[in-house]
Amino acid sequence: MLDATAGERPTERLPNRQLVAMSLYWFGLSSIFAGLTAILGGRLEFTGLVGPGEAGRALFLTTIGGAIIAILVQPTIGSISDYTTSRWGRRKPYIVIGSVLDVVFLIGIATSNDLISIAAFITLLQFSSNLAQGPFQGYVPDLVPARQVGLASALVGLFQILGNVGGFAIGALAIATEQFALGLVSLGVIELATMVIVFVGVREGRTPKDRAGRSWLSIAGEAWGTDILREHSFLWLVVSRLAILMGGGVLVNLAPFYLPRSHGLSQQETGTAYLAMVALVALGTVVAVVPSARISDRIGRKKVIYASCAIAAAGLGVVAVAPTVPIAFAGVALYGISAGIFLAVDWALMTDIIPKASSGRYMGMSNVATASSGVLAVAVGGSLMDVVGGPAELGTGPRAALVMAVVLCGVGALLLRPVEEPRREDAPVAAAEVAATGA
Q1: Contacts of 390 (CB under 8 A, 6+ apart)
Q2: pLDDT tens digits, 353-399
Q3: Positions of the chain with pLDDT lower than 50, given as ranges
Q4: Distance from C-alpha of 255 to C-alpha of 271, rounded to nearest angstrom
Q5: What are the angstrom distances between the C-alpha of 418 and each of 72, 238, 243, 307, 415?
Q6: Cα→Cα distances 120→9, 41, 61, 390, Å
Q7: What is the pTM of this model?
């Protein structure tokens, strides 16, 4: 077990089964908000919760409070977990409590029939989910040695995307069958199952940092200390991540509107087509995620992320102008490839550059981009959709939002330029590796 006050990366090689167990919880976490977004979009589009031309605005208003909570909670609880001492370690208590509360709040959303109560439970869900996610993100910097970062990050990206795919699949089935409540409860069951695997299968890493007599309030405030402003590469990477994820967020959040408005599909056809989109994203991800992480180990992370941005822009552009659903599917497949590349390699680059002793704090802060990207995509893209489409809900509305998504991919690539990537030859060599080679 490493001393948390030390900044070095662990050197002990982890068994592959522990890498998988560590990453699997991402499946549960990602599936919740992917499925929730799809189900909420379906309810807004097909159940008469809002009037014509108001769906984009309503989707934003029901999720903005939760996004603010996520931005505040995740870095704060991540920082607190860096100092936590318990019989379960410094990360697991938060993971267990947050997961159980997620199920409670999903049931609340499932049984709510007005926008105010739905928004309230979504806000509570964001609190509980980020209570778990902030500390959980510290595991890769806590436990993974430098030579396994590419593989670990690939697994993180893989299970994040598969979680998104699983969530969207459940959402698509819920839309097609009008079983919205059953879909939401299913998401909670999935997260509980993956939480149990992490609790049983992942050991703790570093010893907690010493509080040195400071209060927990002081520790919580540390997450927002101005010292983080000195980490220039970290800050540029966070804003780059935000722009890139917003681009993809426009597609995944507005697809329940794009399919019926831009292609004239019925509710059942929309659910079926959405399910096909999910399958294509899954296929692209599975093909791309592991090879891209391994390539980034050799040629560098930034080059691979630039390639991801280019592929994403191409895919989203095809969806934006597609005259038929099959052509839109081709663009979605390209986006799936780009998403697999980005999530694996971006995670590895973030892990490379953060201070290791405060991994909970920095990984929590980095996920501010992830937590806010979907809501900002809805805020900007959904508002543009409403303005361009108007009360008639014309198909040009979702298409205009997707053109904006293409621009966001380019902005994300430009914001990545100032990030100083550690050179591959500077990666630390494990002591055990040196001893094994006799060096």
Answers
A1: 53, 397
A2: 877 656 667 776 777 777 678 778 888 888 899 899 888 888 999 99
A3: 1-7, 424-439
A4: 10
A5: 26, 12, 15, 17, 7
A6: 40, 17, 11, 28
A7: 0.69
Q: How far apart are CA 332 and CA 249, in angstroms?
A: 13
Rounded distance between C-alpha atoms, residue 58 and residue 18, angstroms: 42
Give the list of residues 6+ apart from residue 118 with CB closer than 8 angstroms, or none. 40, 62, 109, 112
What letter does residue 90 receive in the DSSP assignment? S
pLDDT at 5: 44
In angstroms, how far is CA 213 from the centroid of its own chain?
A: 35
Q: How far apart are CA 371 and CA 64, in angstroms?
A: 10
Query: Looking up tokens 């097609």, which residue turns up?
Result: 176
In 355-395, which residue ranges form alpha helices assigned H by DSSP? 359-377, 383-389
439 vs 429: CA distance, rounded Å: 11
CA pair distance 25, 428, nearest whole angstrom: 28
pLDDT in tens, 71-80: 888 888 888 8
Whole-Å CA distances, 421 to 275, 294, 303, 348, 426? 38, 16, 10, 11, 10
* Domains, in order of start, for the chain: 16-208+230-420 (1.20.1250.20)
Q: How far apart are the first and last CA of the chain?
A: 24
Amino acid 334: pLDDT: 94
Q: What is the pLDDT at residue 1?
A: 47
| Tokens 């592929």, located at residue | 311
Distance CA 374, CA 42 (A): 16
C-alpha radius of gyration, the chain, whole number: 21
Helix (H, G, I), strand (E, B) or coil at 431: helix
Quick one: CA torsion of 213, 218, 219, 225, rounded to 10 degrees?
A: -130
- Give dist(CA 285, CA 280) in Å, integer: 9
26 burial level (CB within 10 Å; 0-12, 13-18, 19+): buried
Supply the pLDDT for residue 277. Answer: 87
Q: What local confidence, expressed as pLDDT, does residue 48 receive? A: 73
Q: Determine the distance from the C-alpha atom of residue 399 to the mean position of all C-alpha atoms in its chain, rounded to a whole number.
A: 24
CB-count burial class (<10 Å; 0-12, 13-18, 19+) for 9: buried
Give Cα 281 to chain centroid, integer Å: 15
- Whole-number average pLDDT of the chain: 83
Half-sphere exposure of 431 (CA within 13 A, CB side): 5
37, 277, 396, 67 alpha-carbon torsion, rounded to 10°: 20
What are 114's two structure tokens? Answer: 């007005």
What residue has token string 């992370």?
Answer: 301
